[in-house]
């Protein structure tokens, strides 16, 4: 199966670093004309230099200039997000509002902007960043989990509303993928082991795992998938105690377990 996005126009938010950068780079590598946005222009300058070196087509500019420049938007990836938190009793309204404004309202505004364009084209792919926290939240993460659960159900409603125009809308739920935002792989060793013990595959994910899924959802191969939340977590808590299988395999000499 060959994923070919040549000639497609893709817009990726929060693309300056981490998962967003990998998504944008993967789409560009598959031939998409990829427009990127981020609140930090220095990240986008570095990204543009990388693309010029690889001969990929893409740019960073104001969102309202994309249609004027290319005549269409085929793929929207709402990747931009924040995750400040705290216990509910100590959580400030500012932190709560920041999560809702960036993660949920930002997704809403971008989708609302591209929906008329994709309806006019009678085609399009909208792919929103949810989180494993939308499935199972963590203590201290109420603001983030609420915003990402909102993205999940917003995605389902929008998929229903845009279905008649052949526009699909899906969201992805990354699990433990170390980034500059979460620093999973920089935690003390004992804490890392405790986190890894919740994963069926018991290893950190990488940004490319998410990027490959997004690339598939952006392609014609995913034309019959819409309204879904897809878990990209290495099987986090797929069973109650994933470590049990690893302990049994280690006892049989099949794997090593720290």
Describe it for me?
The chain has 258 residues and is α/β, with parallel strands linked by helices. Helices cover 43% and strands 13% of the residues. It has helices spanning 18-29, 41-54, 66-70, 93-121, 142-162, 189-196, 207-218, 243-251; strands at residues 9-12, 33-36, 58-60, 75-78, 124-129, 167-174, 229-232. It has a 7-stranded parallel β-sheet with strand order 3-2-1-4-5-6-7, sandwiched between helices. Helix 1 (18-29) crosses helix 7 and helix 4 (93-121) packs parallel to helix 5 (142-162). It is globular, with a radius of gyration of 19 Å.
Largest beta-sheet details:
7 strands, parallel
Low-confidence stretches: none
Supply the number of helical segments: 8
Total strand count, please?
A: 7
**Rg on CA atoms, Å:** 19 Å
Distance between the termini: 38 Å
Topology:
Blueprint: E1 9-12, H1 18-29, E2 33-36, H2 41-54, E3 58-60, H3 66-70, E4 75-78, H4 93-121, E5 124-129, H5 142-162, E6 167-174, H6 189-196, H7 207-218, E7 229-232, H8 243-251
Parallel strand pairs: 1-2, 1-4, 2-3, 4-5, 5-6, 6-7
Helix pairs in contact: 1-7, 4-5
Keywords:
7 strands; alpha/beta; 258 residues; seven-stranded parallel β-sheet; 8 helices; 43% helix; single chain; globular
TL;DR of this structure?
The protein has 258 residues and is an alpha/beta fold. It is built from 8 helices and 7 strands, in the order E-H-E-H-E-H-E-H-E-H-E-H-H-E-H.
């Amino acid at each position: 199966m060959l994923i070919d996005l040549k000639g497609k126009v893709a817009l990726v938010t929060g693309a300056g670093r981490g998962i967003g950068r990998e998504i944008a780079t993967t789409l560009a590598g598959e031939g998409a004309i990829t427009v990127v946005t981020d609140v930090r222009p220095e990240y986008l300058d570095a990204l543009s230099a990388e693309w010029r070196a690889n001969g990929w087509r893409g740019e960073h500019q104001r969102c309202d200039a994309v249609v004027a420049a290319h005549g269409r938007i085929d793929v929207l990836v709402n990747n931009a997000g924040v995750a400040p938190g705290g216990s509910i009793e100590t959580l400030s309204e500012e932190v709560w509002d920041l999560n809702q404004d960036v993660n949920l309202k930002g997704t809403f505004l971008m989708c609302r902007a591209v929906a008329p364009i994709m309806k006019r084209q009678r085609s399009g792919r909208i792919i929103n960043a949810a989180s494993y926290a939308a499935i199972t939240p963590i203590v201290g993460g109420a603001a983030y989990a609420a915003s990402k659960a909102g993205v999940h159900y917003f995605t389902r409603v929008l998929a229903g509303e845009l279905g008649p125009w052949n526009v699909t809308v899906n969201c992805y739920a990354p699990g433990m993928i170390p980034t500059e935002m979460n620093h999973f792989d920089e935690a003390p060793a004992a804490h890392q082991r405790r986190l890894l013990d919740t994963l069926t595959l018991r290893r950190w994910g990488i940004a490319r795992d998410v990027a490959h899924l997004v690339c598939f959802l952006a392609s014609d191969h995913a034309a019959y998938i819409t309204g879904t939340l897809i878990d990209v977590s290495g099987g986090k808590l797929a069973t109650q105690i994933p470590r049990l299988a690893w302990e049994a395999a280690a006892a049989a000499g099949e794997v090593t377990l720290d």
